[in-house]
Design brief:
Largest sheet: 7 strands, mixed
Strand order of the largest sheet: 2-8-7-6-5-3-4
Catalytic activity: 4-(phosphooxy)-L-threonine + 2-oxoglutarate = (R)-3-hydroxy-2-oxo-4-phosphooxybutanoate + L-glutamate; O-phospho-L-serine + 2-oxoglutarate = 3-phosphooxypyruvate + L-glutamate
Helix content: 25-40%
CATH topology of the largest domain: Aspartate Aminotransferase, domain 2
GO molecular function: O-phospho-L-serine:2-oxoglutarate aminotransferase activity; pyridoxal phosphate binding
GO cellular component, one term: cytoplasm
Organism: Massilia glaciei
Order of helices and strands: EHHEHEHEEEEEHHHEEHEEH
Number of domains: 2
CATH superfamily of the largest domain: Type I PLP-dependent aspartate aminotransferase-like (Major domain)
CATH class of the largest domain: Alpha Beta
Subunit structure: Homodimer.
Distance between the termini: 30 Å
Length: about 350
């Protein structure tokens, strides 16, 4: 098979070593005679897989002891409903949820939360077409809000928070980190909740990860389904219902792989180098454009546009012949997008840069 580099925004590239191990263990996991997909989620074999995954993720992110790690289903979009159903009950009703609107995914979160609470858009970069992050001093926050929601990396729009806000009250910060979790060092203690779909840096689609501070458990609205009540899920160690077992298994392999590779600090160094290499090529002249303010450019998702967009199809066809796949931008914004998650090697980014230079005729 011709070697390819997959720049898909998600489901996305996984480490080759992980895929090879999963393939080797597909029919018989560690002499059990069973595939992981065939195991009881309550049996000792899978419980050991689950416990290893929790242990390794806690080590990777230095997650404090007073935080629970939950594995759920439904993806990041469903979690946009599960979050308010678990948190707005902490405050007297009607509760208010604060949002910083920085792109497509925070926009989806706002619309979903409005079904369960009053929403205050404390700040928005919509007026500049989501190419920046509003300065924290401009945020109009609600005293006593149920929580402040941030999408700390906008997969479609390509903006990323490079700071953690400091709030003056006890309002917990909820962060959708779907598309950059495990790519950079994060102080988990600064957040009340971190959540994300797995299909970017962790594993296959279908698995959702929630990291939640223990004091935020137990306030779910009566309408919250029991399988999505974080307190119930935590009490049963993510086994209240049948969890996405194979997704947890692959995630565990990824966590172990990252630890062997030097952990999150090593990933961050590599991601800085990959992003710098790509952005430097895009900025070399005006043949290509990245419209995001330099101080909040995403290291994971790099949208860009050709100056002459009539060349888009020719560009994509040429990229495909070179094994550079999934570069077409999201349908809502057009252009191109290169997603360079943890598993994308720097050789893949260099191959893309070589093609960018060749196509531009440099």
């Amino acid at each position: 098979m011709t070697h390819i580099f997959n720049f898909s925004a998600g489901p996305a590239v996984l480490p080759k070593e992980v895929l090879e191990q999963a393939a080797a263990e597909m029919l018989d996991w560690h002499g059990s005679g069973m595939s992981v997909m065939e195991m009881s989620h309550r049996g000792p074999e899978f419980i050991s897989i689950y416990q290893d995954a929790v242990r390794d993720l806690r080590a990777l992110l230095a997650i404090p002891a007073n935080y629970k790690i939950l594995f759920l289903q439904g993806g990041g979009l469903a979690e946009n409903a599960i979050v308010p159903m678990n948190l707005v009950g902490r405050r007297a009703q009607p509760a208010t949820v604060d949002f910083v609107h920085t792109g497509s995914w925070s926009g989806k979160s706002i619309a979903e939360a409005a079904r369960y609470a009053s929403v205050n858009v404390a700040a928005s970069s919509e007026s500049d077409k989501f190419t920046s992050i509003p300065a924290p001093e401009s945020w109009r926050l609600t005293p006593g809000a149920a929580y402040l929601h941030l999408c700390t990396n906008e997969t479609i729009d390509g903006v990323e928070f490079n700071f953690t806000p400091e709030l003056s009250d006890d309002t917990p910060i909820v962060a959708d980190m779907s598309s950059h979790i495990l790519s950079r060092v994060v102080d988990v203690s600064k957040y009340g909740v971190i959540f994300g779909g797995a299909q970017k840096n962790i594993g296959p689609a279908g698995l959702t990860l929630v990291i939640v501070r223990e004091d935020l458990l137990g306030s779910a609205l009566p309408i919250c389904p029991s399988a999505f009540d974080w307190a119930t899920v935590a009490k049963h160690d993510s086994m209240y219902n049948t969890p996405p077992t194979y997704g947890i298994y692959i995630a565990g392999l990824v966590f172990a792989h990252l630890l062997r590779a030097g952990g999150v600090p090593a990933m961050e160094r590599r991601n800085i180098a990959k992003a710098r290499l790509l952005y430097d090529a895009l900025d070399a002249d005006d043949f290509y454009q990245n419209r995001v303010a330099p101080d909040c450019r995403s290291r994971m998702n790099v949208p860009f546009y050709l100056r002459d967009e009539s060349l888009n199809e020719k560009f994509l066809a040429g990229a495909k012949t070179r094994g550079l796949l999934q570069l077409k931008g999201h349908k809502s914004v057009g252009g191109m997008r290169a997603s360079i998650y943890n598993a994308m090697p720097i050789e893949g980014v260099q191959a893309l840069v070589d093609y960018l230079n060749e196509f531009a005729g440099r």
